[in-house]
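Model: You mentioned two targets. I'll fold them one after the other.
Researcher: Yes, keep them separate.
Model: Target one:
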Amino acid sequence: MVTALIAIVVALLAAELVASLFLPAPYVDRAPLVRVAPHPVLAYALVPEQSTFSYQAPVRTDADGLRALPSVTSTTSTVLFLGGSETFGKGVRAEETFAARVQFARAGTNAIDAGVPDWNLDQSVLWLERYGARFSPDVVVLTFYWNDLFEEAGLDRDAAPVEEWAPRAVLKRSGWLEQIAPLYTRSRLAYVARNALKTWVGRSRGHPEFVWRDALLAGETRPEIERAWSRIEVELERFSALADARGFRAIVLVLPIEHAVARGRPTTFVPRAAELARARGLEVVDATPALMTASDPYIPWDGRPSPSGHAAIARALLDRLASER
């Protein structure tokens, strides 16, 4: 028995060594992880004034529960950024986010990062309706990513929500996730096994992260995806109405599916999102060309923008901000 266990350990170590030659290193989690808390209006929000980590990147939130960016001494305009984990900047430092990069590149600009991991368009727009006016933004950038289409997206769910991937949900509820994550995230083999299991479970259960993404990448549609597009139209209408009422410049930042960037083949998702936004008088920034020319634009094994990806997105935004409406 002991000999067999030693043989297994040696085989796993050898396999890990081989994997290190061919596979990218994962971003390693560091505790404590970013915390959210229930919110009476938004379902959940970031815990205010926390000092935590997203992978190895330090995260601080201010008294409003927004991610704290480097401060500026004098400002002439305010740009407010809304969205999910891509806007929040999962896995990257505050100064590496595209919000902060826009602030650095535009003299006199105060950037506000109101992105919250896993938020959808309706939560972002609702936050803007309820709390955005106090920041008096001159420009509001609403990030639209393909997972905003999910059937269970947002607060007004008209279908039963799809539960989080079961093993992770159990670990999170038990409190073990924060203890285990820094260990398994160091192993390439663990990531391969985790992703394979997650994909198998997701596709077998029909989770939109896999089924819908496959359809979008193939240029196909499904009735539930069309219903989701209808909800997106409602959110874009609300965003446009707020821009008219409050007088800010409204920009929809459309991010491509990361698999489409990796394959070098754009999908119909971005053009359709851009068409819906422009039909409502909204400006559009398509980040696809910038991301396709960037070096390693995504975090390995994760799919969110890397520091290089955030820099590419910032360049696309800066080009639009420098132009006339």
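Model: Target two:
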Amino acid sequence: MILFVVAVAVLLSIVFALLRAFLGPTVFDRILAVNSFGTKTVLLIALLAAASGRGDYLDLALLYALLNFIGTVALLRYTEQAPRRQEGS
């Protein structure tokens, strides 16, 4: 029962992260929201592993966390080096 309540709370926070990703005023808000979405997905996979009693899901969660981290760092590097547009141009 408690895992179900936690899963619903995590899903609700995922919805809020997706809203921030779509409505974020800056690129960095969107990147932070996507990173948060990935972290919450890892938490959801870990909850699924605990609920089902299968430890091999934790390997998938760890792999997804690593991909999420590398993707976020790569996206931040790209936005750091991308040329900025001037307003009014």
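Researcher: Noted. Anything on target two?
Model: Residues 60 and 66 are 10 Å apart (CA to CA).
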